[in-house]
Amino acid sequence: MAARPRALAAGLLLTAALGAGSAGAASLGLVVGINDYAAYPEYRDGMPFGVAYDLMGARNDAERIAEAMRDTGIDLPDRRLLLDGQATEAAFLAAWAAMLDEAQPGDTLIVTFAGHGAQETEASPPFDEADGRDEIIMFHDFDPQRPGTGRLTDDELRVLLEGASEYNVVWVMDACHSGGLTRSAARTLSRFGGLFEGLPDPALSDVPLDLGDGAADDESLPHVTQILATASEDLLVDEIEIDGEMHGALSWYFAEALSGSA
Question: How far is CA 27 from CA 17, 80, 225, in A?
Protein backbone atom coordinates (compact mmCIF):
# COMPACT_ATOMS: atom_id res chain seq x y z
CA MET A 1 0.00 0.00 0.00
CA ALA A 2 1.34 3.44 -0.90
CA ALA A 3 1.87 4.93 2.53
CA ARG A 4 4.19 7.79 1.66
CA PRO A 5 1.66 10.58 0.79
CA ARG A 6 -0.39 10.09 3.95
CA ALA A 7 2.67 9.46 6.09
CA LEU A 8 4.06 12.70 4.68
CA ALA A 9 0.91 14.61 5.67
CA ALA A 10 1.01 13.19 9.20
CA GLY A 11 4.72 13.84 9.34
CA LEU A 12 4.39 17.48 8.34
CA LEU A 13 1.87 18.06 11.13
CA LEU A 14 4.05 16.16 13.59
CA THR A 15 7.21 18.00 12.55
CA ALA A 16 5.46 21.36 12.88
CA ALA A 17 4.22 20.43 16.35
CA LEU A 18 7.58 19.15 17.55
CA GLY A 19 9.30 22.18 16.08
CA ALA A 20 7.06 24.47 18.10
CA GLY A 21 8.68 23.31 21.34
CA SER A 22 11.53 25.20 22.92
CA ALA A 23 15.14 24.20 22.34
CA GLY A 24 16.08 21.23 24.47
CA ALA A 25 12.45 20.38 25.25
CA ALA A 26 11.54 16.75 25.85
CA SER A 27 8.80 14.72 24.16
CA LEU A 28 6.53 12.51 26.28
CA GLY A 29 3.96 10.01 25.02
CA LEU A 30 0.65 8.59 26.20
CA VAL A 31 -0.72 5.80 23.97
CA VAL A 32 -4.15 4.12 24.21
CA GLY A 33 -5.35 1.14 22.18
CA ILE A 34 -8.58 -0.71 22.97
CA ASN A 35 -9.81 -3.83 21.19
CA ASP A 36 -11.51 -5.38 24.23
CA TYR A 37 -14.57 -3.54 25.53
CA ALA A 38 -16.13 -4.96 28.69
CA ALA A 39 -19.68 -4.49 27.40
CA TYR A 40 -19.26 -5.60 23.77
CA PRO A 41 -18.97 -9.06 22.17
CA GLU A 42 -16.04 -10.23 20.10
CA TYR A 43 -16.50 -9.65 16.37
CA ARG A 44 -16.65 -12.68 14.08
CA ASP A 45 -17.15 -12.93 10.33
CA GLY A 46 -20.79 -12.90 9.36
CA MET A 47 -22.02 -10.90 12.34
CA PRO A 48 -24.47 -8.12 11.40
CA PHE A 49 -23.33 -4.58 10.71
CA GLY A 50 -24.68 -1.60 12.59
CA VAL A 51 -23.95 -3.19 15.98
CA ALA A 52 -20.97 -2.36 18.20
CA TYR A 53 -18.38 -5.08 18.74
CA ASP A 54 -14.90 -5.42 20.13
CA LEU A 55 -12.29 -4.14 17.68
CA MET A 56 -9.43 -6.02 16.04
CA GLY A 57 -6.91 -3.34 15.07
CA ALA A 58 -6.80 -0.71 17.84
CA ARG A 59 -4.32 -2.61 20.00
CA ASN A 60 -2.15 -3.19 16.91
CA ASP A 61 -2.23 0.57 16.34
CA ALA A 62 -1.13 1.35 19.88
CA GLU A 63 1.66 -1.22 19.91
CA ARG A 64 2.99 -0.04 16.56
CA ILE A 65 2.92 3.63 17.59
CA ALA A 66 4.57 2.77 20.92
CA GLU A 67 7.41 0.98 19.16
CA ALA A 68 7.89 3.92 16.82
CA MET A 69 7.87 6.39 19.71
CA ARG A 70 10.46 4.46 21.65
CA ASP A 71 12.68 4.01 18.60
CA THR A 72 12.50 7.77 18.07
CA GLY A 73 13.46 8.57 21.66
CA ILE A 74 10.05 9.77 22.85
CA ASP A 75 9.58 9.08 26.57
CA LEU A 76 6.93 6.34 26.77
CA PRO A 77 7.14 4.16 29.90
CA ASP A 78 4.86 1.15 30.25
CA ARG A 79 2.63 3.07 32.68
CA ARG A 80 1.64 5.40 29.81
CA LEU A 81 0.89 2.57 27.35
CA LEU A 82 -2.74 1.64 28.09
CA LEU A 83 -4.03 -1.46 26.29
CA ASP A 84 -7.45 -3.11 26.53
CA GLY A 85 -8.41 -3.67 30.18
CA GLN A 86 -5.71 -1.26 31.36
CA ALA A 87 -7.36 1.54 29.37
CA THR A 88 -10.14 2.63 31.71
CA GLU A 89 -11.29 6.23 31.95
CA ALA A 90 -9.73 6.56 35.41
CA ALA A 91 -6.42 5.08 34.22
CA PHE A 92 -6.28 7.49 31.28
CA LEU A 93 -6.98 10.52 33.46
CA ALA A 94 -4.38 9.38 35.98
CA ALA A 95 -1.77 8.83 33.25
CA TRP A 96 -2.55 12.25 31.74
CA ALA A 97 -2.21 13.99 35.11
CA ALA A 98 1.03 12.15 35.91
CA MET A 99 2.48 13.06 32.52
CA LEU A 100 1.76 16.74 33.11
CA ASP A 101 3.43 16.46 36.51
CA GLU A 102 6.55 14.92 34.93
CA ALA A 103 6.74 17.34 31.99
CA GLN A 104 8.36 20.74 32.00
CA PRO A 105 6.84 23.84 30.38
CA GLY A 106 7.68 23.79 26.68
CA ASP A 107 7.82 19.99 26.45
CA THR A 108 5.79 18.19 23.78
CA LEU A 109 3.07 15.77 24.88
CA ILE A 110 1.98 13.26 22.22
CA VAL A 111 -1.31 11.49 23.01
CA THR A 112 -2.77 8.84 20.69
CA PHE A 113 -6.13 7.11 21.06
CA ALA A 114 -7.27 4.13 18.97
CA GLY A 115 -10.66 2.73 19.88
CA HIS A 116 -14.39 3.33 19.70
CA GLY A 117 -15.92 6.78 19.35
CA ALA A 118 -19.63 7.53 19.66
CA GLN A 119 -22.20 10.24 20.23
CA GLU A 120 -24.60 10.97 23.04
CA THR A 121 -27.43 13.43 23.50
CA GLU A 122 -26.32 16.48 25.45
CA ALA A 123 -27.60 16.21 28.99
CA SER A 124 -25.60 18.88 30.82
CA PRO A 125 -24.10 22.31 30.09
CA PRO A 126 -22.69 23.58 27.88
CA PHE A 127 -25.61 22.98 25.47
CA ASP A 128 -23.51 24.05 22.51
CA GLU A 129 -23.71 21.34 19.86
CA ALA A 130 -25.54 22.23 16.64
CA ASP A 131 -26.88 18.66 16.39
CA GLY A 132 -27.60 18.35 20.11
CA ARG A 133 -25.03 15.56 20.50
CA ASP A 134 -21.70 15.40 22.25
CA GLU A 135 -18.94 13.36 20.65
CA ILE A 136 -17.24 10.89 23.00
CA ILE A 137 -14.26 8.55 23.13
CA MET A 138 -14.93 5.25 24.85
CA PHE A 139 -12.66 3.39 27.23
CA HIS A 140 -12.61 -0.30 28.19
CA ASP A 141 -15.09 0.24 31.03
CA PHE A 142 -17.75 2.02 28.97
CA ASP A 143 -21.22 0.90 30.05
CA PRO A 144 -24.08 1.28 27.50
CA GLN A 145 -26.57 1.12 30.36
CA ARG A 146 -24.82 4.05 32.06
CA PRO A 147 -23.40 6.15 29.21
CA GLY A 148 -21.65 8.52 31.62
CA THR A 149 -19.32 5.69 32.65
CA GLY A 150 -16.01 4.98 30.95
CA ARG A 151 -16.06 7.82 28.45
CA LEU A 152 -14.95 11.39 27.91
CA THR A 153 -16.97 13.94 25.94
CA ASP A 154 -15.54 16.49 23.54
CA ASP A 155 -16.19 19.19 26.16
CA GLU A 156 -14.27 17.26 28.82
CA LEU A 157 -11.39 16.64 26.42
CA ARG A 158 -11.38 20.33 25.63
CA VAL A 159 -10.94 21.14 29.33
CA LEU A 160 -8.01 18.70 29.57
CA LEU A 161 -6.30 20.35 26.61
CA GLU A 162 -6.91 23.86 27.93
CA GLY A 163 -5.27 22.80 31.19
CA ALA A 164 -2.09 21.83 29.32
CA SER A 165 -1.39 25.27 27.84
CA GLU A 166 2.20 25.27 29.15
CA TYR A 167 3.00 22.37 26.85
CA ASN A 168 3.01 21.66 23.13
CA VAL A 169 0.32 18.97 22.63
CA VAL A 170 -0.05 16.60 19.68
CA TRP A 171 -3.46 14.91 19.91
CA VAL A 172 -4.00 11.91 17.58
CA MET A 173 -7.47 10.35 17.63
CA ASP A 174 -8.28 7.30 15.50
CA ALA A 175 -11.98 6.86 16.32
CA CYS A 176 -15.38 7.59 14.81
CA HIS A 177 -16.88 11.09 15.09
CA SER A 178 -13.51 12.72 15.77
CA GLY A 179 -13.66 15.23 12.89
CA GLY A 180 -10.57 16.09 10.80
CA LEU A 181 -8.74 13.82 8.38
CA THR A 182 -10.75 11.88 5.77
CA ARG A 183 -10.03 8.31 4.84
CA SER A 184 -12.01 5.66 3.03
CA ALA A 185 -11.86 1.90 3.20
CA ALA A 186 -13.77 -1.20 2.24
CA ARG A 187 -16.77 -2.01 4.40
CA THR A 188 -15.42 -3.71 7.51
CA LEU A 189 -15.43 -3.44 11.29
CA SER A 190 -16.25 0.14 12.26
CA ARG A 191 -14.96 2.11 15.24
CA PHE A 192 -18.49 3.34 15.95
CA GLY A 193 -19.58 2.57 19.49
CA GLY A 194 -23.20 3.71 19.29
CA LEU A 195 -25.57 6.59 19.99
CA PHE A 196 -26.66 7.03 23.60
CA GLU A 197 -28.72 9.18 25.88
CA GLY A 198 -26.36 11.41 27.81
CA LEU A 199 -26.19 11.62 31.57
CA PRO A 200 -25.65 14.88 33.46
CA ASP A 201 -22.04 15.27 34.55
CA PRO A 202 -21.44 17.62 37.51
CA ALA A 203 -17.81 18.00 36.41
CA LEU A 204 -19.00 20.01 33.43
CA SER A 205 -20.45 22.75 35.61
CA ASP A 206 -17.12 24.57 35.39
CA VAL A 207 -16.80 24.26 31.61
CA PRO A 208 -17.14 27.64 29.83
CA LEU A 209 -20.30 27.91 27.77
CA ASP A 210 -18.62 28.67 24.45
CA LEU A 211 -16.74 25.41 23.83
CA GLY A 212 -19.07 23.78 21.29
CA ASP A 213 -18.75 23.20 17.57
CA GLY A 214 -18.83 26.86 16.64
CA ALA A 215 -15.85 27.72 18.87
CA ALA A 216 -13.65 24.83 17.82
CA ASP A 217 -11.30 26.85 15.63
CA ASP A 218 -7.54 26.55 15.25
CA GLU A 219 -6.84 29.75 17.20
CA SER A 220 -8.71 28.65 20.32
CA LEU A 221 -6.09 26.04 21.31
CA PRO A 222 -2.86 27.38 19.83
CA HIS A 223 -0.70 24.90 21.74
CA VAL A 224 -2.55 21.87 20.31
CA THR A 225 -1.96 20.10 16.99
CA GLN A 226 -4.85 17.73 16.26
CA ILE A 227 -4.44 14.80 13.88
CA LEU A 228 -7.87 13.17 13.58
CA ALA A 229 -9.33 10.27 11.65
CA THR A 230 -12.53 11.68 10.11
CA ALA A 231 -13.50 14.80 8.21
CA SER A 232 -16.67 15.47 10.18
CA GLU A 233 -18.52 14.45 13.30
CA ASP A 234 -20.79 12.23 11.19
CA LEU A 235 -18.24 10.01 9.42
CA LEU A 236 -17.34 6.56 10.67
CA VAL A 237 -13.87 5.04 10.78
CA ASP A 238 -13.33 1.54 9.43
CA GLU A 239 -10.54 -0.82 10.31
CA ILE A 240 -8.61 -2.14 7.33
CA GLU A 241 -6.02 -4.84 6.72
CA ILE A 242 -2.48 -3.55 6.21
CA ASP A 243 0.45 -5.93 5.85
CA GLY A 244 -1.67 -8.82 7.11
CA GLU A 245 -2.90 -7.08 10.29
CA MET A 246 -5.96 -5.02 11.13
CA HIS A 247 -5.28 -1.33 11.77
CA GLY A 248 -6.79 2.11 11.71
CA ALA A 249 -5.28 3.84 8.71
CA LEU A 250 -4.51 7.07 10.55
CA SER A 251 -2.59 5.28 13.31
CA TRP A 252 -0.65 3.21 10.80
CA TYR A 253 0.41 6.30 8.83
CA PHE A 254 1.23 8.19 12.02
CA ALA A 255 3.58 5.40 13.11
CA GLU A 256 5.13 5.51 9.65
CA ALA A 257 5.70 9.24 10.04
CA LEU A 258 7.27 8.77 13.49
CA SER A 259 9.56 6.12 12.02
CA GLY A 260 10.88 8.52 9.40
CA SER A 261 8.83 7.73 6.29
CA ALA A 262 7.82 11.37 6.06
Answer: 11, 13, 14
Helix (H, G, I), strand (E, B) or coil at 74: coil
pLDDT digits (tens, 9 = 90+) for 14-28: 555 555 555 578 999
What's the count of helices (H) and strands (E) in the chain, helices before strands?
5, 11
User: With 0-12 CB in 10 A as exposed, 13-18 as middle and 19+ as buried, what is 258?
Assistant: buried
pLDDT classification of 44: cutoffs 50, 70, 90: confident
pLDDT surpasses 70 at 64 = yes
Dist CA 135 CA 153 (whole Å): 6
**Cα 137 to Cα 128: distance, rounded to the nearest angstrom:** 18
Residue 197 CB contacts under 8 Å (≥ 6 apart), including other chains: 120, 121, 123, 147
58-72 vs 249-258: helix axis angle to the nearest 10? Answer: 10
Q: Which of 137, 133, 176 is nearest to 153 (CA)?
A: 137
How far apart are alpha carbons 155 and 152 in whole angstroms?
Answer: 8
Side chain identity at residue 146, one-letter code: R
The pTM of the full predicted model, rounded to 2 decimals, is: 0.76
pLDDT at 149 over 80: yes
Cα 65 to Cα 78: distance, rounded to the nearest angstrom: 13
